[in-house]
Amino acid sequence: MGIALSQRGLRLAACNAWRSAPLAALSRPTTAAQLLRLRLGPERGRASIVGAASAWTRSLSHSATWATPVPPTTTDPTAAGQAPPPPPGKGQTTKPKPPAGRGVRRLGYLAVGLTIGYLLYEFNTTFRYSVIALIRYSRLMKAVVLDVWDYKTTFAREDRAQAAADGDLSPEERARLRSERKACHSRSAQRIYEALRKNSGIYVKLGQHLGAVHVLPKEWTQAMIPLQDQCFPTPVEDVDAMLRKDLGMGIDDLFIDFEPNPIGVASLAQVHRAVDRRSGRPVAVKVQHAALEEFAAVDLAAVNVAIRFVKHVFPDFEFDWLADEMNEMQPLEMNFRHEAANSLRCRHDFQHLTGKTSMYLPEVLWAEQRCLVMEYIDGSRVDDLAYLKKHKIDRNQVSQELARIFSQMVYINGFFHADPHHGNLLIRPKAQNSSSPFNFDLCLLDHGQYVAIPSDLRVNYAHFWLSLMTPVSEKTIRERKKYARLVGNIEEDMYPYLESAITGRISMDMDEEETPNSLLDEQQPLSRHQKKLQKAILDREGVVADIFELLRTIPRRLLMILKLSDLQRALDNSLATTHGPNRIYLILGQYCAQAIWQSDRENLSDDYHKHGLSLHLFTGFARSWLSYMYYSTMFGTAELGMDIKARLTKVGLWFRGLAKGGFATASQEMAGLGATA
């Protein structure tokens, strides 16, 4: 049967077939015959319509003009005639790979980020300093966190051992725990030391403060000793740039023959030798490290954060006293005008002692915020025994003069140099214009750190020292604890720790077997007392916590005096003196007696102007004068005896050296150089 389809009917059939066809099948260009097969099916009049359809078999790829293909909406792969993906583990061996362009883009982003970071670090000063400050802070906090963890685990092991033994540990177990604690101290101190050394700047100053407090565990104080000398110099180009920024003039505008290599490098500054262009005098030029100013505020903040963190974890072991010292002293030390003013005041305080002291202060030519120019001193470190031998300088006299200088500062002037370590003291043969009563001058350097003492603290501290040197009695013991409370703000149970901190010796209340009558009866060397004190720190329960409680409680001014006392003892020990362990106490006692006598006279003078002459005033004056004369005579007589003994000891060393190796060895032994002979 023939069927005639008009062109209009064919189009309608094609349109109806398109509407009912599967959408996936229409995603490709389609002919009219294909559309009809989809609409009518393969079995309905296939032969009849082929001929009729042949009249119009052109492609319908232009069908988008009257119908837009709709993308498939089903997620079933079988709807498009495709096989479903195999289930996981069955035929699927590799995961689909992400587009290759994604990895390339990530590498590109990384390269761009690194490039931008490098350019900012090299050419943006603020960004570079921020990165360096973050690294320094991270280095410090890493060491602090590791130390906290180390101490936590060590203390936990000790607590478990104590609990297992019900508090009754065997000697072997005690020795093991002591060894573990010492090892923990050593590890922790070394971590902090490395962080401070690498960070430099005020971090080195922090380590120097820690090393000067000798009541801390020995492992900590000894670990910090190298920080006195291990400081990194600033390149001379940076020094020149800093001077131009601050003063508008460079090195060549200010100086002649400026030596590029510094003759001394400290934590905050370095010193160069030069010739002042204006005066033509040889000078020492002290310049601050160029980067210190940018890092100081951030570094101080980092130190405070670390200290607060330690306090949070170990409330008994707080270092607030250290943070207070850093926060107060650091800004002052960074201002060299302040240092020049301190030097001028110190010179004025000693002006009346011309011809009676060997102390010499280099003249300051001019000072700015970060640059100080002073007289150049050609000398050596005060503990250079070979230098002393070469110039025939008596090391015992040097030690005694140091004691007189600092006792004058503390007990009479009430204004003292708080950082007199070996690097801040030079000794030289007596200069032609010097008024020294000896054959040497002691030159005091670095006046950035001075402390003023209130009069009541100064006089009460003098009373406390005299009570320690007075033969023991019930009255003396009461006086010791009375003045310890006045100067240290402590209760009676903390007294032994304060006495040990002040004298550097095991307290007379802490060792029942060996109790000397007074400090002047003590014959044991200081080194032996230090060993006893360290043993007590390791052996006795709660000693470390009590020491930190003491450091937290006592006034900050007294803490600085204790630091000065520790530095003085270290100087005396490095000089290998032969006058015995108590010679310095005799000098100190004389200045204490003088301070009390002066204070009493001032008080009596005030009473006289208020109330006039009276019997009470007369008896008070007589009592004070007799006390002063008693101590002066007693100490002076003891000094004479000790000096004679010291000379005889030197003679004995000479004969011992002569017997060992002849005259050269004898000379070495007498000069205290026997170990290097």
Automatic annotation (TrEMBL):
GO CC, alphabetical: mitochondrial inner membrane
Pfam families tied to this protein: ABC1
Domain ABC1 atypical kinase-like: 227-470
Region feature Disordered, mapped onto this chain: 65-102
Transmembrane residue ranges: none
Biological processes annotated in GO: lipid homeostasis; mitochondrion organization
Annotated family: Belongs to the protein kinase superfamily. ADCK protein kinase family.
Protein's name according to its UniProt entry: ABC1 family protein MCP2
UniProt source species: Vanrija pseudolonga
Gene responsible for this protein: SPBC15C4.02
